[in-house]
């Protein structure tokens, strides 16, 4: 025991409070009940009471230490440009970011899949309703035709309805075409070929074009240019004499 006391006295350091910052206090006074809850009154099995006792004790330590720090002119507020390194490494934070990003992308994919399923279900519903409506109209028309054939009915209203429906569709399509105008292919052809018009006789001569001889070149037209003559002279020099001329030449040589 004496040895322990001796060791304690050797490494024990007498430092100022600002270097130690140790505060030993009880719990702070509850502002509602205006009394500090005793230690024995806290039930350790009750999570709320236990955590509240820790909070009150830390609050009492802060209320005791802050005035002393201000008296010693020690700053207690963190500056706006304060930078502190995180306890976790950058690699670990990068893994966490990737994990969160993958979870978010999975949630977005599942949400898109749900929307697509809902749209497909709605599209199928609309399609089935349209098919059922067409089948019902077809069935009603066939029943009306059968009744007319058997003589049970002398009304031809179903033909009038079909004709009016077809005319309405034609009018609607024509009105839509008038609103939309010609398509891109038609516009390109109109621009290229000049909106139709007269094609026959477009290259015929007129009185003015017939009398205009400014672009006429007789040398070129009748092969009388210097280039043409030179070409004929070369051909004449290189041309082989005929058979009779060659025979006369042989006779002269003899």
TrEMBL record:
Lineage, uppermost ranks: Eukaryota, Metazoa, Chordata, Craniata, Vertebrata
Organism: Smutsornis africanus (Double-banded courser)
Family affiliation: Belongs to the EBP2 family.
Basic and acidic residues biased stretches: 102-114
Region feature (Disordered): 97-127, 159-254
One Pfam family it belongs to: Ebp2
Stated name of the protein: EBP2 protein
GO annotation, biological process: ribosomal large subunit biogenesis; rRNA processing
Function: Required for the processing of the 27S pre-rRNA.
GO CC aspect terms: nuclear periphery; nucleolus; preribosome, large subunit precursor
Biased composition range(s): Basic residues: 115-124, 229-254
Keywords: Coiled coil, Nucleus, Ribosome biogenesis
PANTHER family for this protein: RRNA PROCESSING PROTEIN EBNA1-BINDING PROTEIN-RELATED, RRNA-PROCESSING PROTEIN EBP2-RELATED
Subcellular location per the Swiss-Prot or TrEMBL entry: Nucleus, Nucleolus
Compositionally biased tracts (Polar residues): 164-178
């Amino acid at each position: 025991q004496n040895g322990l006391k001796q060791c304690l006295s050797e490494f024990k350091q007498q430092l100022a409070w600002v270097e130690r910052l140790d505060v030993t206090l009880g719990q702070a006074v509850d502002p509602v009940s205006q009394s500090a809850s005793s230690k024995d009154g806290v039930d350790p099995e009750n999570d709320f009471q236990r955590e509240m006792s820790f909070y009150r004790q830390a609050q009492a330590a802060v209320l005791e230490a802050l005035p002393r720090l201000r008296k010693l002119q020690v700053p207690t507020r963190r500056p706006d440009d304060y930078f502190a390194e995180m306890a976790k490494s950058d690699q670990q934070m990068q893994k966490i970011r990737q994990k969160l990003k993958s979870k978010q992308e999975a949630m977005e994919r599942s949400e898109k899949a749900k929307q697509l399923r809902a749209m497909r279900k709605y599209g199928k519903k609309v399609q089935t309703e349209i098919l059922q409506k067409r089948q019902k109209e077809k069935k009603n028309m066939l029943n009306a035709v059968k009744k007319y054939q058997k003589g049970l009915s002398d009304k031809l209203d179903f033909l009038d309805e079909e004709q009016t429906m077809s005319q309405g569709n034609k009018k609607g399509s024509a009105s839509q075409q008038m609103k939309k105008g010609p398509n891109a292919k038609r516009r390109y052809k109109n621009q290229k070929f000049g909106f139709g018009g007269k094609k026959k006789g477009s290259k015929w001569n007129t009185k003015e074009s017939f009398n205009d001889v400014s672009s006429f070149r007789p040398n070129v037209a009748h092969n009388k240019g210097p280039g043409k003559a030179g070409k004929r002279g070369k051909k004449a020099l290189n041309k082989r004499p005929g058979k009779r001329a060659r025979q006369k030449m042989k006779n002269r040589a003899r």
